[in-house]
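Deliverable D4.2, example record:
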Amino acid sequence: MSVGADIEAVCGRCGMGWHVVIAMADGRIAQVECRQCGKRHKLRAPSADGPRPHRRTGAVAVRRRIAASRPLLAPDPARPPRPYRPADRYAPADRIEHPSFGLGVVERLLGPGKIQVFFEDGERVLVHERSA
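Output generated by the structure prediction step:
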């Protein structure tokens, strides 16, 4: 194992599993960074029993992980998937095809120039209405 390697760990913020090793000390992993939310923390190995509730939020964190496994909004089948382009404008329920993440559903607008999109591997925040 070395700095920059991918490793499975538990993130206290979002509960996601894949992390990047960002610091080593005495041949041991000292710090990792979550690939989903970007939080840096000590290595927390996943348990064999599955994810455990966060100590402060308890069942709320478990409900969030379960909710993250399905879209908040059902896709509109009348709208065919569109190729994702940062300059295009998107609305909730639009279906998009991202070159890296695959098919997704726009769940909501997060503010000027940002959308939350549900993909099979989880939610992502993408830009839209961004001029070149």
